[in-house]
Amino acid sequence: MTIRSAEFDDIYFSPDDGAAETEYVFLRGNNLPQNWIGRDYFTICETGFGTGLNFLVAWDLFEKTAAPQQHLHFISFEKFPLAPDVIKDALTPWAERFGHKIDQMLSQYPLRINGWHRLDITPNISITLIFDDVNNAIPQLDTPIDAWFLDGFAPSKNPDMWSENLFSAMRRCAHQHTTAATFSAAGFVKRGIAEHGFTVRKDKGYGRKRDMLTATFSADETAPKQPLTAKSTSKKIAVLGGGLGGTAAAYFLAQSGHDVTLFEQENTLASKASGNPRGLYNPRFRKEYDTESIFYSSAYNSAYKLFKEFGDEIDFTPCGTVHLINDEKKQIRLPVTRVTWNWHDDHMRIIPKAESKDICGIELNCDSLFLPDGGFVSPHKLCHKLVQNIKVVHGYKDIDYSAYNAVIFAVGASFMDFPELEGIDLHTIRGQITSVKAPNNNTIKTLLCYGGYSTPACDGEITCGSTFQRWRNDTDIDPKDNRDNINLLNALLPPEQHIQEDQITGGRTSLRTASQDLFPVVGHLKDNMYVSIGHGSHGLLSSVMGGLVLNDLISLNGQTPLPQNMLNKLAPARYLKAKA
Ligand code: SAM
Q1: E-strand spans in 2-114?
Q2: pTM given for the model
Q3: What is the pLDDT of residue 233?
Q4: Please, is 165 exposed, middle or buried when counting C-beta atoms within 10 Å of its C-beta (0-12, 13-18, 19+)?
Q5: Poorest-confidence range of 194-203, 348-357, 371-380, 472-481?
């Protein structure tokens, strides 16, 4: 079967033998495997992931020809992600050749939502799969690329993909030995590559195609980048803070082979804002798909995959999340988010109020934004799970920062105890959640977000919350806050399901930490010091993404294949510079 795009009226690969075409055009065209011999970290960048066939062919050859310590990183852009079952069908002709590789790739395949998604396929093979228009995303790529696979549909059918954005990225990411290959021989493609520092050659095309192009960064040009040598060797790392920010960072760093010790001041982990028994993993919706949206959208996929893997151990409950469009601001924002974030209908859609009862179990008086894979986990259990194989030391007193290659401050509301964090504009926001005994006639099936939020009944209990009080910093349980939480929920419930005060079974109050612009602060501080703090109300997502970011910064010596605008926006420098 030949898979064809209706959008572009073109085929994904040659009907004769797509894999042979990949070998000829992209591998031979980039002088592979010869060019990766002796290179411990090799990065291929492709335009147009499609079915992943090019990736599978490259992985197969890498496995056969690379030494055990070598790592292949495959970066690819895709604006129209195919569904996993469509990919599986399209790859049927190579089911025997690639066997488990297809399943392994698909088991890591992201939700079809915009974002920079990292897939750890094996310890030696990783993918950064960027679901977005290449023109929107590639200006943010700034990492050394060894070989370019310029796929994408024919330039005549998809001229947008072969743009100045692409060609200038090729120069920005080039080192002296960077190569490129494409099935196309179009004049403007040839000129675009040549005008950005490459020496381009015409070559015989595959099969019935007459010509194709190959290119090498020109010896006469000064290369902007050095090749990456190796994924850094194991470092000794101290993480301060046993809440979500600290445990997530510790987890990803330990996964990369670093020697991590986690320090927690209290006698138990997750004793503060990360200790709630239930927490929603929820993006912070923005109207545009801007820098902050890239962060939250990417975080949603990473967190969802991780939580799914941990499953029952962290009470993973993907019951769906219904965000009520219940005020004017949301009426303006959320329908636009639905479009600009470009999440597939399977993962985000607007539900008219007439359909609300079917979806969430009660009739709502407004439309909603529905995330079918949304849900909740136990943040408390998550923190414990993340560091179950990591050394944990209770108490900060004995830490000698100079004994570590990296020290990460993830100390939440204790930020004032650390002079290293001075200058980062942090504050706390008090939040109280309330647990109530679910009435027998309760019908709610999903999470509801209406300004406050509530969970469906689980083990006979509903959790609702959370107050948002910047002006208070006590953590006493306040009966009035419990009443406020219940009243907000009751305003949605049919009268017969109303919660009474005597159904309250408990509550928990803690201080979240947020920075002045309410975006988390993640990145390099100074010397060997890093920070992951200010995770606020969306901490389940932002702490996971923060951990991934710190792992990339530390493991790849700063050459991270993550969007530069996101890294800059996260970095503590945004506060430290302003103060300087
Ligand atoms: N390399 C693929 C494979 O191994 O199956 C085949 C790629 S197919 C010829 C081209 C791909 O580019 C399609 O999946 C298409 O959706 C994607 N594409 C087209 N225009 C794009 C754009 N502006 N940004 C990102 N991806 C785009």
Answers
A1: 4-5, 10-11, 41-47, 71-78
A2: 0.96
A3: 80
A4: middle
A5: 472-481
**Cis bond upstream, residue 33 (ω within 30):** yes
Measuring from atom 18 of ligand 1, which residue has the nearest CA? 48
Whole-angstrom distance, CA of residue 294 vs CA of residue 113: 10
Is the separation of the CB atoms in 520 and 574 below 8 Å? no
Residue 22 has pLDDT above 90, yes or no: yes
CA distance 407 to 527: 9
Q: Which two tokens stand for residue 21?
A: 């075409």
Q: How far apart are CA 501 and CA 327, in angstroms?
A: 27
Tell me, in angstroms, the distance from the centre of ligand 1 to residue 47's CA.
6
Cα of 133 vs centre of ligand 1, distance in Å, is: 10
**Residue 2: left if φ>0, alpha if ψ -120 to 50, beta else—which one?**
beta
The amino acid that residue 198 corresponds to is: F
Residue pLDDT, tens place only, 333-359? 999 999 999 999 999 999 999 999 999
Determine which residue's CA is closest to atom 1 belonging to ligand 1: 49
Angle between helices 164-172 and 187-194 (to 10 degrees): 30
Amino acid at 128: T
The per-residue b/e assignment along 195-228, b for 16 or more CB within 10 angstroms, e otherwise, is: ebbbebeebebbeeeeebbbbbbbeeeebebebb
CA dihedral of 53, 54, 60, 63, whole degrees rounded to 10:
-140
Show the ligand 1 pocket: residues with CB < 6 angstroms: 12-13, 48-54, 77-80, 133-134, 151-153, 158, 160-161
Residue 222 makes CB contacts below 8 A (sequence gap 6+) with: none
Count of H helices and E strands in the chain?
17, 26
- Tell me the domains of the chain and their CATH numbers: 4-217 (3.40.50.150), 236-273+380-425+524-553+562-579 (3.50.50.60), 426-515 (3.30.9.10)
Q: Where are the beta strands (DSSP E) in 455-496?
A: 461-465
